[in-house]
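Appendix B. Extra example for self-study. Work through it before the problem class; the solution is given directly after the inputs so you can check yourself.
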Amino acid sequence: MIGADAVPHTFTPIATLYTCFKEKFGVPRQMNLVPAAKGQLVFDPAFANMDAVRDLEKFSHIWLIFVFHQTRDKTWSALVRPPRLGGNKKTGVFATRSPFRPNPIGISAVKLESVENSCDGPVLHLSGVDIVNETPVLDIKPYIPWADAIVRADGGFADKRPASRLQVIFSSEAQTQCRKMTKQIPNLASLITQILENDPRPGYRAGPTTKDKKIYGIRLYDLDVKWQITDGIARILSLDPIK
Amino acid sequence: MIGADAVPHTFTPIATLYTCFKEKFGVPRQMNLVPAAKGQLVFDPAFANMDAVRDLEKFSHIWLIFVFHQTRDKTWSALVRPPRLGGNKKTGVFATRSPFRPNPIGISAVKLESVENSCDGPVLHLSGVDIVNETPVLDIKPYIPWADAIVRADGGFADKRPASRLQVIFSSEAQTQCRKMTKQIPNLASLITQILENDPRPGYRAGPTTKDKKIYGIRLYDLDVKWQITDGIARILSLDPIK
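Solution. Structure tokens for the complete assembly:
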């Protein structure tokens, strides 16, 4: 009875998600960890139909089923090292949400802020996204609390919300640069703070007590944000436009 | 910026899910509504590797990402009539979990009862399944309670667990037939009771007060179960082997 339907299935994205995250580094490790992380879901012309999203705005959260397009052509291994286990203990790929998987499909339940009726069809405004820019989306489903919120579930090694919370401060230079960007990105300071509070460093470097002199860079929108961690405090050094 | 990645994506199932549900009618409308509904996930030989599921047994629930293979080749409409709205009000397809959708992909968080190390590789024993037999599965992910259980979510028209609970009784003939099957299917009576309590009839017929003389049939394992609803009571008439 094995492999009764191992034929390939082909799906064409219905929409593209645009977010502040230009690259994988810095993307929150689950949804809703960074409420200031916004996204706009723009439908492909073939699906850009207000009828198809009728009543969707009644739901506060929606599931996105998407393609990990940046890892799509990468190989996968049966064992991975999840950041939650410090990045040095091996776990089965199906016991993790690693983007390097046999079928690089992701699921994410994000907050639906509003549904815009634009001249190009519906645009969904989302927050709490943990998805990289230009991600192809295969499907959208409403989040159904009585079915999806299994509060009695046991989450194994990922049972608790990550505790490592860093304090975040802006250097005076970064503060000046941030202020200049306020018109284009009103919530930029919150966004940077929320991302760094969650400590996006790889597992083996993370933790407030680790000695770590490295200057890190993360690309948000068209900005290159640089920071350094000293004594458990993430200090934003600069926010420069990407050349 | 529209349609930046509207290229098709092809996925090959990693596993096949075997369940008691031979056809769409009678499948619970969400997961965990019928705890007695069991399933066995059998991996395709290419993925039948105990390493790939290492530590998965530490999670009580897992997400299955699967293909609605019975509706795969059917057309979809922007508007559908969900059973929760009585089957006569139209709603956008993306505001529902209807299996008739542009990309027929389903997600379901089911209970992981155990992980068996069989001679054909891992077999996952599941319960609370709402998936038809021989469903191709594209991916498995752990259910992460602190991220996935959004208890403050607003579920729109599907905010509450369906209330319509029917009383279920077995005719003496059905009871005799059920008893004979106990060796093969120990929880058959619970399974039938839990399915019918949830009233699997189409929305326009459902509700305990509706006059409905129709005899319904549902195929579970290799049995054809017949029942009738009178005065809000579902009465099992017979359980006959499928010829």
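Self-check: Chain A has a mean pLDDT of 91. If your reasoning did not lead you there, revisit section 3.
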